[in-house]
Amino acid sequence: MVKQLIKDEKARNLTYKKRMISIKKKTTELATLCGIEVCAIAFGPDGEIDSWPEKPADARAMIGVYKDMYSRTLKSTEATTETEARTDANSDDEKIANLEREIADAERENRRKIMRMMEAMNHALSDRIEFLKAVDDERRSKTGEKKAGSVGKDINGEELPIVVNSEILVGYRSLFGSVLVGLLLNVGGNSNFLDS
Q1: Is-contact 190 120, C-beta < 8 A?
Q2: How much is the pTM?
Q3: CA 104 → CA 108, 175, 181, 184, 185, distances in Å?
Q4: Cα Rg for the chain, rounded, in angstroms?
Q5: Positive or negative, the Cα torsion across 167, 172, 174, 175?
């Protein structure tokens, strides 16, 4: 059953008085049986103050003790909160610094991995070019075919010569490596990534 405000004022005052007697009785029992100090304060429907212990001085003493304890607890809580806030701030700064170090380390490691992968690709491409050149030379030696003098004609009808020699391959490897390093520099955003 849901409790509601008693609408009839006389019934409300009567219920208050009966319940307050019961609360004072229970408060007295609690103090006696448990050997503790107890204070109960109620503001009645007509604005009167009803308390236990009955003597106002005893009730004021209990309220004073409560206020002192509350004040100490509040100060202690504020000090703890301030300390925790400083500790949290320091902890957050340390976490951020650690994360920044981890990110920098991961970026360095990723750049190294990319560089190793690009070097491997460069070597594989160079090996493939050498292999195709050797296969072409072998095929030509078996068939007696001479190397083609051109790959076709330009727009003016002139022959475009085939020029594949070791200088071009070395130049190609060097250029390919430079392009890869430039690409890594642009991707990494760090011109000294090999030093870091």
Answers
A1: no
A2: 0.36
A3: 6, 29, 19, 16, 15
A4: 46
A5: positive
Residue 193: count of CB within 10 angstroms of its CB: 19
The DSSP code sequence of 103-167 is HHHHHHHHHHHHHHHHHHHHHHHHHHHHHHHHHHHHHHHHHTPPPPSEEEE-TTS-EEE----HH
Secondary structure in 3-state letters for 41-86: EEECCCCCEEEECCCHHHHHHHHHHHHHHHHHHHHHHHHHHHHHHH
In the structure encoding, which two tokens stand for residue 18, read together? Answer: 């009966």
CB-side neighbour CA atoms (13 Å) of 61: 9
What is each CA distance from 69 to 31, 51, 66, 74, in whole angstroms? 19, 20, 5, 8
Using one digit for the tens of pLDDT, what is the confidence trace for 44-65?
888 888 888 888 788 888 888 8
Residue 47 neighbours by CB distance under 10 Å:
6
Per residue in 74-103, pLDDT (tens digit) is 777 776 776 666 666 667 778 888 899 999
Angle CA 21–24–26, to nearest 5: 110
